[in-house]
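dude i think i finally got it to work??
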Amino acid sequence: MIRKKWNRDWIMSKPGENPMMAAVMGLQADMEKLTLPHDAMIHEHRTQNTKNKHQTGFYPGGCYTYTKVFEAPQEWSEKMIYIAFEGVYENARVYINGDYAGGCPNGYREFLLCANDFLNYGTDNTVTVIANNSAEENSRWYSGSGIYRDVCIYVANQVHVKADSLRIRTPEVESDLASVEVDMHLTNKGISKRKTKVVITLQNPKGEEAAAVNLPVTVFGGAEEHLRTRIQIENPDLWSCETPALYSCTVKVMENEECLDETTEQFGIRKISLSAKKGFRINGKEVNLRGACIHHDNGVIGAVTLERAEERRVQQLKAAGFNCLRSSHHPMSRAMLKACDREGMLVLDELSDFWTRSKNNNDYADKFPDYWAQDAEAMIAKDYNHPSVIMYISGNEIQEAATAKGAQLNRLITEKIHELDDSRYVTVAINGLLSCMDHMGEIMCDITGMTMEEMMQMQGQTSQTPKSDAGADAANGSTDLMKGPLADAFAANHIVTELLDEFASVTDLVGYNYLTARHEMEHELFPHRVILGTETLPSDLVRLWKIVKNNSHVIGDMTWTGYDYIGEAGAGCFYYDGRQGFMPNWPISLSGMGDIDLIGRRRPISYYREIVFGLRKEPYIAVERVNHYGEKPTISAWSWKDELESWTWKGYEGKGAVINVYSDADEVELYQNGISLGRKPAGEEHDFYASFETPYQPGILKAVNYRAGVEAEKMTLKTANTAAELSVEADRTVLKADGADLSYLMISVKDENGTCNMQEVKEVTVTVTGAGTLQGMGSADPETDNYYDNTTWKLYDGYVLAVVRAGFEPGEIHVMVSTEGGRKNEIILIAEK
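look at this
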C-alpha cells in the first residue's frame, strides 16, 4: 500500500476542561486551521505555577481536538481505507463521523485504524482526534501536545500487502554476494479467491535493477497469506556509517495485467555481530559507538516532527563526530530513522522510560503492564527495514531492576523483542543508584566499613579517618553518587553486583547509566558479557573513551546529551547566584546540556569531544566567561565548563581570563597579540587540554600544536571590531512546496572579517511573507521568558535562529530581518513543486 501524508486542512481547537459540556452548551472554542504535524504545547502560556514546572520547561498540558472534513469518493466503497497516526501526545481517541474508531494511550507509539466501517461514501466525512495531555506531571521532559507527527492515509484494493508487513533482512552478507530475505503478508478482504502474481524488484543505490523475482500466489477470500523468499545480489554495495548505501524493494501485486497493489521500502545490506572478544562489528569491521542520547523535541519549533528538522539534527550530530544516537526515552520517529539511514548514523531505539514503577505522578507506568507488548510490536514494525537500527533498549533506569520480578519482566520483554526481530540486539539501560535505592544503607556501610549507627554519627564530621577516599566522602555527608571516588566505589560494590546480576544477565549486552567503574571490572566477573555506556557524564569523557579503546567488551559510550532540549529545565546550567540544577528555577525552560545548543550551534565541549575521539587534529580555543571570572558556579554532574569560542569581552579589559586549549598534541603554546603565554603539555596524558590565565585585552589569540617538538596545527580567535553588519545565513534557499520543508536562518552581528560579536544582545525581528510562514524563532538562552512563536527575540551569545516553513504553493518567500538601530537584511527563499 502506498503511504500518503494526510496533513492538510486540519482544524485544532482547545475545548477546555470539559469538552462534553462545551458541546452540550454550544460553547465554541478558539479554532485554528493548520497543517500537521503540530505541537500545541509550544504555543501554550508558560506559567510558574503549572504542575509540570521545570520538567516540561513550565509548559502546561491540555486537551486538544483536531478535526478534518474530507470527501470519501464513491469508488472508495470498493477499497480498504486505513489511517495511520505516527504520534499523538497523548491518550489519543479517534472518531469518524462521531463514532469511536480507535485510539492509543501511548504518546510515542504509531497506530493504524481501518476507516471503512465508519465512512459515508460519495459525501463529506469528519475525522476527529482528541489528544488529551491534561493530566500534568506525566513526563520528565518536554513532551509536546497534540498530533505532533505525520498522519498518513492508505487507499488500497481489497487484495493488498498488509501495512508495515513488508520486511527485508540480509541474513548472509559477503563482499561479492548477499542474500536478501523479503517477507510480507498478502491479505484479501474480499469473499472470492484471487490468483495473483507478486513481482519483487530490488534496485541498487543508483536506481538500477539489481534483482527481481515473480511469485504466483492464490489469496483466498477473507484470508491472509504469508510470503517469504530469498533473493541474491552479486557484488552488493554494503551499508555502513562511512558508506550508507540504500537499496529499494518494490512489490507489485498483479492480477493478469492489472496492478492491485504496490509498495516500496528502502533497506541496507549490512551484517552486524557482537562479542566480548571482538566487540561490535559492521560487515566484519569493529565499530566503537561514539554515541549521543537525544530527546525528541526540535528546539525552537517544539515537538513538531518534520523531516527536514530531524535530518538537520542528524547531520549536525554526525558532523560533530557522533556515529550513534540513542532515542531517549521512547521510540524514534520515522523521519529521523530515514535520516539516520541516509547519513550513516546508527540507532538505539528505546521502548520506554519505565515499566511498573512511576517516575512521575501521571506517567505511562500505570498503562505499561497492559500495553507494552503492543508498544514493542509497533516499534519493531516501524524499525525493521532501517539499516541504521542496530539495537533495541527495552527500558531506561528501571527501578525494579534489583528485584526478581523485575528480572522476570526483563526476560518477557527481551524475548518478545527477539521473537519480533531476531536480527538485532537487545539491551536495557541500568541505573544502579535508582535500582539499589532500597539497599543504600547496606551498601554505604559496606563501602565505609562502618555500622549504620556509626554512619549516622559520622555524617557531617571529619574527626575520624575513614578507610578510603570514598569512605571520606560518605562519612562527610557527601551524596554525590554521580561522579568521584564515592560514585566509583558504589558502582564497583559487590552488593550492587549481586543485586543487579539476574537483571543484567537477561539481555544480549548490558547498558550502564553512570556506572563507569563497572565497565572494566565486568570482564573479570563475567568474561562473556558485553558492556555499553548507555548514558554517561560529559565530564567523564576522557576516562570513558580510554576504556572503550582499550577493552573490546566495552563497545561505546552514549553521552548525555548530544543536543540541548526543552524540559528538565536548568539541569546543566551554571548558577552564580546559589541556585541548584534540577529545581524549578523560573523562568528557565531548557536543560542547558548538550554538545550542540538548542539552535544548532556546537558548544566548545563538542570540539573537545571530537579531539578525544581522534577526529580533529587542530587545537581548539575556548574562553571561560570573563564576566564571571573568579566566581565559582553551582553546577550539576552533567555540566562541563561555562565557556565560549569568543575573545570579545568589551568592558572587561584587564580582568582575568581563563583560556582552555583543547588538543591531542604533546604540547600547545598560546599567544596573545603575538606574545607567548607559555607552552604546556596536552594530549591524552593531560586529558587533552591545557589551561592558561591572562588579563583580557582585545586582539588575537593563537594556539599552536607541537608534535615531537615540531610546530603543527594552529587555531586563532579574534576580537570582533566595532563596525558590524547583520548576518543572516540560510542553510537552504530552495525548498519543496510540500507544506513541510524548512529553511534554518542563523542570525548574528558580525564585523567586516566575519567575526561574530557574541556580546551583542540587540533585539531581532523577523517578518515572513509570500509562499511560507515562520514556524519558530528563538535563541539558546535557557532563562528567557520569551516564546518560540514570537517574531522578536534578543540575541544570546551572539545568535538567534529563525525557522521558515514552506507552504503548498510555489513562489518566493521573503524573509525580512531587522534589528535595533535600523539594520536590515532581506533573504529570498524559493519554494518549488
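The longest helix spans residues 404-420.
im so relieved honestly
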